[in-house]
Design brief:
By secondary structure, this protein is mostly helical. The protein has 2 domains: 60 residues, Arc Repressor Mutant, subunit A; 37 residues, no CATH class. The protein is 60% helix and 9% strand. The protein is built from 6 helices and 2 strands. A hairpin with a 2-residue loop joins strand 1 and strand 2.
């Protein structure tokens, strides 16, 4: 059960979730192997337990170790984090967020990408989102 999935994730928690998503499942040792700068095994274990308390991970015991699985899809997790960024840095304004995203990305976007963005916006307007 998701207890607090809308809570802000720290940089380290996001890194751990990235490892678990990339691997589809992970042990504490897997996380330590993938994150060079994690202080130690105990720190990783505590953070994974916190992520479990937030409802983002669940574990199964396999022999002497716990294997952790994500409980939230990557898309849902991205949306939650993006909402946090929008509230924190853009005063809750989707327009301000989009304006800055376009400003920093426009030189790197192809015509096909622009067309897709226009299509997404048009579809959202038609659906009343």
């Amino acid at each position: 059960m998701v207890k607090k999935s809308n809570e802000y994730l720290s940089r380290r928690e996001r890194q751990i979730m990235d490892v678990v998503y990339r691997r589809k499942k992970a042990t504490v040792s897997d996380v330590c192997d993938d994150l060079d700068d994690i202080p130690n095994y105990t720190a990783a274990r505590v953070l994974m337990h916190l992520l479990e308390d937030k409802g983002l991970l669940r574990h199964e015991r396999q022999g002497q170790r716990y294997v952790y699985y994500p409980t939230v899809s990557p898309r849902k997790a991205r949306k939650s984090e993006l909402k946090h960024v929008m509230r924190t840095f853009f005063d809750g304004s989707p327009r301000e967020l989009m304006a800055d995203l376009i400003d920093i990305s426009q030189k790197e976007m192809s015509e096909d990408e622009w067309s897709e963005i226009y299509r997404i916006i048009d579809d959202a307007r038609k659906q009343g989102r």
